[in-house]
Design brief:
The protein is mainly beta and about 400 residues long. Helices cover about 10% and strands about 40% of the residues.
């Protein structure tokens, strides 16, 4: 009998575990969908309360963000707007002096705090399993308020506020119950200013130069040959007639990369900028532009069209990168390079990535021979009948 008792106890424990996973797995540890006391990990918004949460900042990639004043809401699929949820979320946005901020754009989204991996997946267009949520947007009225109604209950909401005069504000882990009125106050902060002057090699100011301020993650993505990215992910800021530029409302946080480009001059990137204080000064002196050119081809000497060729160089704590695409004959030319040595990297669909090191600016007739990637072919058959299998999935794995 004793073995039967042991087996019965194991079955009861297993059933209890399955019940917990199926019916309680969506809750936070030690929590429920009810409104509880605030913890160090969760911002809990209770009915009728107006907490002032500790500032939670996410790095803003520079530039000014336009915010419409109209009280409008947009919804995408998957977002509940059911009358069965008798709740509403009232959001109030205040400036550093405690005054209302009209025209702030609010986004209510389902999901946890945005991580670097989620940002990378978003940039590359990949589906993030943890971000299969909808977004609802509103703009604050003259009193700095906006209201969201009929919200599906949950404890993993994030609320984001943007305004052209302040840096982005994000509040994570907002909990909404099925019934009741919930209040959130977001306190906006002034952003940091990144500014400076751009001059050419003679000391003259450069008007109309483009400057891009980006996170290191965005820059890494742009420099990845596996990603078809031919432009920066942020909007450029232009220099005026004195060569002066100003990027407002930058949030402090991780180091940033600042790139400048101008016609006829070599592009430069200042990496690992520390964003802190009230203003960050960054000046550029651009060298005359030089070019490299050559041809990309396969083992049969035929040119490879639409191959991406990227140059990368490092001089005096500044990097230089540029990208070109080969023509129908496999030929390429990359300009806006400063004097110095570079590494060329060529990539194309169906071909292995090839690199050439120590290529001097101004060098021409560069030859890059690509190696065609191998393939796998075969036939799937039924192990019993020997007949063909027409509906199957084949995956490949590399072992080292």
């Amino acid at each position: 009998m004793r073995p039967l008792v042991v087996i019965a106890l194991i079955l009861v424990a297993t059933a209890t575990l399955l019940f917990s996973i199926l019916f309680l797995g969506g809750e936070e540890e030690g929590g429920s969908n009810a409104i509880d006391a605030p913890s160090s990990q969760t911002t809990v918004i209770g009915p009728g309360s107006s907490p002032t949460p500790e500032p939670t900042q996410e790095l803003e990639e520079g530039g000014r963000i336009a915010a419409p004043v109209a009280e409008a809401e947009s919804r995408t699929a998957l977002q509940s707007d059911s009358e069965s949820f008798g709740n509403k979320l009232i959001v109030k946005v205040l400036d550093p002096d405690g005054q209302p901020v009209p025209g702030a754009k609010l986004t209510l989204e389902r999901g946890t705090q945005r991580t670097g991996l989620a940002e990378l997946q978003s940039m590359m267009g990949a589906n993030n399993p943890g971000a299969s949520f909808a977004k609802r947007t509103k703009s604050t009225n003259a009193s700095g308020e906006a209201t969201f109604r009929g919200i599906e209950p949950g404890s993993d909401y994030a609320l984001v506020a943007k305004h052209d005069e302040y840096r982005k504000k994000r509040e994570n882990y907002v909990r909404i119950a099925e019934e009741g009125e919930f209040n959130v106050t977001l306190n906006m902060q002034l952003g940091i200013i990144v500014h400076g002057y751009v001059h050419d090699f003679t000391g003259e100011p450069v008007e109309g130069a483009e400057l891009f301020l980006e996170s290191q993650l965005a820059s890494a993505l742009w420099n990845n040959p596996a990603v078809s990215a031919t432009k920066q992910t942020s909007k450029p800021v232009l220099t005026n007639e004195t060569g002066y530029y100003r990027i407002s409302n930058v949030s402090p946080g991780e180091p940033m990369n600042l790139t400048v480009r101008a016609n006829g001059l070599a592009s430069k990137t200042r990496r690992n900028l520390t964003i802190r204080g009230e203003m960050v000064d960054v000046d550029f002196n651009l060298d005359p532009a030089q070019a490299v050119s050559g041809r990309v081809f396969g083992p049969d000497q035929k040119g490879i069209a639409n191959a991406s060729v990227r140059v990368m160089g490092w001089q005096q704590q500044q990097t230089m990168t540029a990208l070109a695409t080969t023509n129908a004959s496999g030929e390429f030319e990359i300009g806006n390079l400063a004097e110095g040595d570079y590494t060329l990297m060529a990539s194309a669909e169906g071909w292995g990535v090839q690199r050439k090191h120590r290529i001097a600016a101004g060098e021409s007739q560069i030859e890059i021979q690509m190696a065609e990637q191998g393939g796998i072919s075969g036939r799937a058959i039924d192990g019993t009948s020997g007949g063909p299998v027409t509906n199957f999935t084949l995956s490949q794995h590399k072992y080292t």
